[in-house]
Amino acid sequence: MSKPRILSGMRPTGRLHLGHLVGALENWVRLQDEYDSFFCIVDWHALTTNYENTGDIRASILDNAMDWLAAGLDPNRSTIFVQSQVKEHAELHLLLSMITPLGWLERVPTYKEQMNELTGRDLHTYGFLGYPLLQGADILIYRANVVPVGEDQVSHIELTREIARRFNNLYGAVLPEPQSLLTKVPKLPGTDGRKMSKSYGNAIALTEKPEIVKQTLKTMVTDPARIRRQDPGNPELCPVGDYHKIFSDEKRNTEVDQGCRSAGIGCIECKMWLFDSLQKTIGPIYERRQEIETRKGDVADILDQGAAKARIVAAETMVQVRDAMKI
After folding, report:
1. Sign of CA dihedral 121, 123, 127, 130
2. How far is residue 243's CA from residue 204's CA, in Å, rounded to a whole number?
3. Matching CATH topology for 5-188+296-325 and 198-289?
4. What's the start-to-end Cα distance of the chain, in Å?
5. What is the topology classification, in CATH, of domain 198-289?
6. In the chain, what are the domain boundaries?
7. 77, burial (CB in 10 Å: exposed 0-12, middle 13-18, buried 19+)
8. 5-188+296-325: in CATH 3.40.50.150
């Protein structure tokens, strides 16, 4: 392996939106030239919180894969595959579950946070408790050196390191301990100012038509202090301002800052400036996506070929794991 290896993935739980782009995809596209890159659509993970609603998973897998390709992931430079097509993930997860103390899983911060946030769902299952362990198996099966994550996922990587360390202490040095590759995720709220989420209906999908994007931007909440056109505002307190910081250049951001604070521009004008900036980023993605949709069979082939490459690496790891455990 001439380059260090990375592994990352997303759950196929619906259409991808701008949060996925700035939080992960743009970073993946940059990293695929620096690392031996494995990017996985983690469909088993989708079952951890949505096990009762599985009807859309298959369609979401293909839909997400097309978005990945449209955003710039290249199957000639990255291994792109579906988790469930590599059964070794499940085997390693099972074996690691035999040595992982329950307390390690129960103390993962996101476990309690999601139990409180995802109300109305029965999450008292091993699948939900153990999903960080499955995530660890996803990483360790490819002997990934680093994992690109935001700060909220660092505890998962630390758990993976602890599990690898425990395995190696019990059976010999087989599994490398991965490092976190911290990704600075820009502040990108939903159109209503809350966290961007498909379930809140406040997300802008990557596959949205430009005219729909424009209409959506017109409905975005702004600085509540700007009740009338002549009222000055503060772009630091406005979701539209947050978007400009990510998608607009320095000149436009200066114009937004000065125009908003002096009431020299209205909110609709500011939003249309944002539309122009946003289209420079997502317009080409939308066009590529339209072309990719005409050859869905090729996308399925890419996933099959990626799974075949991933299985080779995963099978090699499992030979070492079984030998070490003498099973």
Report:
1. positive
2. 12
3. no
4. 27
5. Tyrosyl-Transfer RNA Synthetase (1.10.240)
6. 5-188+296-325, 198-289
7. middle
8. no
Q: Residue 21 has what DSSP assignment?
A: I
Question: In a 10 Å sphere around its CB, with 0-12 CB exposed, 13-18 middle and 19+ buried, how is residue 115 labelled?
Answer: middle
The label of the residue with tokens 């993930």 reads: 89
Q: What is the DSSP string of 22-54?
A: IIIIHHHHHHTTTSEEEEEE-HHHHHHHHTT--
For residue 9, the cross-strand partners are 40
User: How far lies 21's CA from each of 67, 112, 154, 282, in Å?
Assistant: 9, 27, 20, 9
Predicted confidence (pLDDT) per residue in 221-277, tens digit: 999 989 899 999 999 999 999 999 999 999 999 999 999 999 999 999 999 999 999
Residue 148 contacts residue 108 (beta carbons within 8 Å): no
Report the pLDDT value the prediction gives residue 166, as an integer from 0 to 100. Answer: 98
Q: What is the pTM of this model?
A: 0.94
Among 16, 39, 10, residue whose Cα is nearest residue 286? 16
Other Cβ atoms within 10 Å of 247 Cβ, number = 22
d(CA 59, CA 80): 17
User: Of how many residues is the chain composed?
Assistant: 327
pLDDT of the residue at 111: 83
Q: Tell me how far apart the alpha carbons of residues 236 and 225 are, in angstroms, rounded to a whole number.
A: 12
Q: Are 143 and 7 in contact (CB under 8 A)?
A: no
Measured CA to CA, the distance from residue 314 to residue 139 in angstroms comes to 10
